[in-house]
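DM from R.C. (forwarded with permission)

"hey, sorry to bug you on a friday — could you get me a structure for this? deadline for the figure draft is monday and I only need the backbone to look sensible"
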Amino acid sequence: MNGIDETEGTRRAMVAEINADATDRAELEAVYGEVWDTRELQEKFEVLGFMAPFCVVRRRSDGVKGSVMFQHWPRFYFSFTEDKP
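My reply, with the result:
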């Protein structure tokens, strides 16, 4: 690994867009479906890592690994996507 994060520019732009206008839970649910606050996320998933605006997670119910997106404030996690095998 060369130490260069080739996704940094894209992720920074996504973080700025996501956090430019705080979205409430109902709006996020309308777009992404299931949404979790921090406590709910910890109940449903084991958090393996962060790289804003993403978290790598493992779903506790079946061990499936994937990622969720999050916004800073109010802190909500959404858009769970399973890793492809």
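R.C.: lifesaver. Residues 8 and 59 are 26 Å apart (CA to CA).
me: no worries. DSSP finds three helices and five strands in the chain.
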